[in-house]
Design a protein that fits this description.
This protein is mainly alpha-helical. The chain has two domains: 444 residues, no CATH class; 127 residues, Histidine kinase-like ATPase, C-terminal domain (Heat Shock Protein 90, 2-Layer Sandwich). Helix content is 71%, strand content 6%. A five-stranded antiparallel β-sheet has the order 1-2-3-5-4, sandwiched between helices. Helix 12 packs parallel to helix 15.
Length: 590
Amino acid sequence: MNSAQSNMKLTSKLMFRLLPVQVFLALIGSINAIISGLFATNFVGVNAMTAVGLYSPINMLIYAISTMLVGGATIMCGKYMGRNEDKKVRNVFSVAIILSTAIALFFIVLFLIFGLFDLTGFIAKDPAVRPLFNSYLAGQAVGLLPLILGNQLASFLSLENRVSRTTAASVTYIFVNIVLNYIFVGKLQMEAFGLALASSLGLWVYFLIQAQYFFTKGSELKLFERHLDWSETKDIVIIGIPGAASYGYQTLRGFIVNALLMTYVGAAGVSALASSDNLLRIAWGLPGGMMAVSRMVMSISMGEEDRQTLTDVMRNMFKRFIPLMCVICGIIIACAVPLTKLYYKDTSDPVFMMTVWGFRILPLCMPLSIICMHFTVYAQSSGKVVLVHLLSILDGVVSVSLFTALLIRSVGMNSVYIANVLNGVVTTIVVVVYSIIRLKGTPRNMDELMVIPNDFGFSEDERLDISVRKEDEVVKVSRAVNDFCIKRGIDNRRAYMASLFLEEMAGNIVEHGFTKDGKNHSIDIRVVHKDNNVILRIKDDCVPFDPAARKEIKDPDDPAKNIGIRMIYKLNHNIEYKNMLGLNVLMVRL
């Protein structure tokens, strides 16, 4: 297996290891609507489900703002971590948390004013629905702070490789939400307010479980960093806006589609769309988790100027993520009728078949949406602002609203579902056309499809990549590194240090890391020579291990043991170790 194949396998393994937790994170906000929808239709009535559907665009607006902060802060921290700038990582973390708190407090006041003083007539025009909507809005206000802050903390916990805490918080949240819905709605009959209050209190539990970690000694990030550099605020917003724009556009789309349905189909249409879209949020958690994983890996790759890993993320998306999504979609389509019966028991009611067709058609847009999401995230990370806004506005509002408006008179309710599929086709075409325009030709490989600048990363002449998967491959490291150094004209001192250190480190990882858990592991070694700088990078997927802990260890029976590590640490202080996303990453500059 060559180094490119090894890197691809390591990247894929990393992404699938991170995926379950990120799917959970993507589902957290959606679980609110899923559980509320099931209790609304089974315990309150169709009007309550309409209220949940009318709240959906507002929920999307909250997610737009939250995504802006999460996306901007995550990408910036990923880049800073790739450059080992710890102080800047902590500063971005603190600034993002303070901004999130301020925004949450603003919306809490806004929700309470509109809900308690019946100022929602422009959204809920039906007099039977508006009181339920007002109560639901007030109950949601209670959970806004933990929702927005929880999304931030979950992202940073992933960067600190503390995904188990987020998993625990997610599972607890689901349990608390269901129990409180049963008590508030099923037993106490608190109707719409009970629906919202149950999920809001569950979100507080979710947030507090995560927040506790950042007050422990184990956290590198603290709440809050002193002497904050508020100039980072501008960069967080600028970087985060393009990725969040899609949610903002979807807010507008939600209002437009709801208005079209109320005009041409009626309240049953809003309920059917809310029901099918509601339960499909579980499936949408998978593309959302995939996007979050790719965003983290891409941001670090951008900071490291790692062209190979950047393209491997996209290859993994096409080869593994999309086929997996297609299987899930096939299962959903086959189960359309039983899924509908979770919401509506009367098969003769028009809303029943409207919902069935939602489960049959809407899943078809999901695989295409994965492509749009990944290219949006990549464009956001690489500064391709035009592509980000183009995809966001098409995917968010233009395509779905336009196709729905064109088809609704002739197709009726199904126009909304078909419009979502056509939207996926349009955005995929736009990705390819963008590459053709920028390249002035047809893209022939992943680098060209992504339009990665030619000067990004290091050329093949400037770098050496070595993959080590078993013990007998360690012996090749020293010779390969030495030959590379001679070819590049690197002085004898640095060539000797590089070859000795890398062979020693590879041997230590194989001896101690490969045998810890009985799993298959790999080491990816990179040597870069550019502008007279020699940079060594070792990346492995073994248990966390800082080689600094071994530099002082001496064996009386074997004086040469750990000599490479001890020599490098003695002669060179520019050594940086990080455990990023569960990978050991060691950087040495000679």
